[in-house]
Design a protein that fits this description.
Length: 278
């Protein structure tokens, strides 16, 4: 069977070609004998299919650049960098190999890092422009590791920290899912009652000529407001959300919002526990 392969040599040079073999394992064995590390192996298509597949792959790669980098991708990136440093590769050689393995936005980041380091910047200096993606802790640890010469263990610690942080975040989300769902269902039932049930009671009292109790009059007023002035609530909701987003974008506003969240009975204790565990 004819296979198409992409690979790298020990010096980081890219290789691409076709090879005849019984299966993919045989392809890997033949390429290793030639000193080529296979990064991608697939059954070779005819020329017309190859052109169409290549075009689809390019389109898909472009689409992936708009998807945020996942935690698993960042963990894989730091672990592979540590492994390559342990093997004696330089930073640029390691980034060149990773650029052929990664896809989407992370590939763009790896290529940008490689270009900056090749132009004379250090690894930490090149990472500064991507601090929002990798986080300030990773940047500070790499900067300190460069000064102490312990870059490989620092990268492994960063990967471990990111894994633990992701696990804690996942546990926090799963814990908060039930109360949030209950809250949303309660709000939905309340709106349904105000929009459908209460107007029917109002019609009943109107036809019978009886005066509703004070509590029913209050509910009828709320129902009338929701059915006739709902757009006011929509505008208020948009303004409140926009105000919160704007406030959180400033340093002082973020401080006040964080203090408020920490004072909420259930949410505050969970945030504190999560931060302390990290």
């Amino acid at each position: 069977m004819r296979y198409e392969y992409h690979g790298l040599t020990s010096s980081g040079d890219s290789k691409h070609g076709f090879i005849q073999a019984a299966d993919q394992n045989a392809v890997v064995s033949k390429l290793q004998k030639k000193g080529i590390f296979a990064t991608q192996i697939r059954v070779a298509a005819d020329d017309s299919q190859a052109v169409s597949i290549q075009g689809l792959n390019q389109v898909w790669d472009q689409v992936l650049t708009y998807i945020p980098v996942k935690t698993s991708q960042k963990v894989f990136f730091f672990r592979q960098m540590a492994l390559m440093f342990r093997s004696g590769l330089s930073v640029t050689e390691a980034l060149t190999i990773l650029s052929h393995i990664q896809r989407g936005k992370l590939r763009q980041i790896v290529n940008a890092l490689n270009d900056d380091i090749s132009s004379g910047k250090s690894f930490s200096q090149a990472l500064e422009q991507f601090e929002s993606i990798f986080g300030p802790m990773a940047l500070h640890m790499i900067r300190s590791a460069e000064n102490s010469g312990e870059l490989e263990p620092a990268l492994l610690r960063i990967a471990d920290f990111m894994e633990r942080k992701h696990e804690i975040k996942t546990q926090l989300i799963s814990t908060m899912t039930y109360p949030i769902v209950v809250l949303l269902m309660t709000i939905g039932v309340f709106i349904f009652m105000m929009m459908t049930v209460i107007p029917k009671f109002a019609g009943f009292f109107e036809r019978s000529g009886r005066t509703p109790p004070p509590e029913m009059l209050q509910l009828m007023g709320i129902a009338n407001f929701l059915t006739t002035q709902w757009y006011v609530l929509l505008v208020v909701f948009i303004v409140v959300i926009g105000g919160i987003i704007y406030t959180y974008s400033t340093r002082e506003g973020r401080l006040y919002i964080d203090i408020f969240l920490l004072k909420i009975p259930l949410i505050g204790s969970m945030i504190s526990a999560s931060a302390m565990s990290q």
